[in-house]
Design a protein that fits this description.
alpha+beta
Amino acid sequence: MREDFEQYLGQTICVMICDIDRFKFFNDTYGHVLGDDILSGISRLLRHIFPDDCVYRYGGDEFLILSFRNQPSFQDDVERFQRHLKDLPFDDLTRQPTMSGGYTWGLCQGAVDLRKIFALADHFLYQAKEAGRNRIHCEPFDDQKAEISLHEIGNLIDKSS
């Protein structure tokens, strides 16, 4: 992912961070083999729905999608992903996995902006989770909101040290 950063600088981009809601439940209840199957199935669906975009596994059960498309086109595929996620065939599950996400879009003028865009998308992910999960929260890039999000992330890192 870091090798791809340069291509986003100076471009208008959409950035979404999403993760599997209550993924620990699936691992704890069904085991890590089924957890891995869920991760693989969702990863394949993301790559299918967003074939021309960059899809990365961003953490344990988090994914990052970067796109050069315009926001309405990106939003159409976000909605399509949410619909198709309900149809993924996972054996022996008592409930289907869902995802929450946050995304933002705007001009990425440089490396600092890219970090701010990531921070704001992450902030919107947490808003989606706080609103009940299984949803995507999005807003256009706002430098002031991004600064606040970066500050919040810095505080979380300081507290965990």
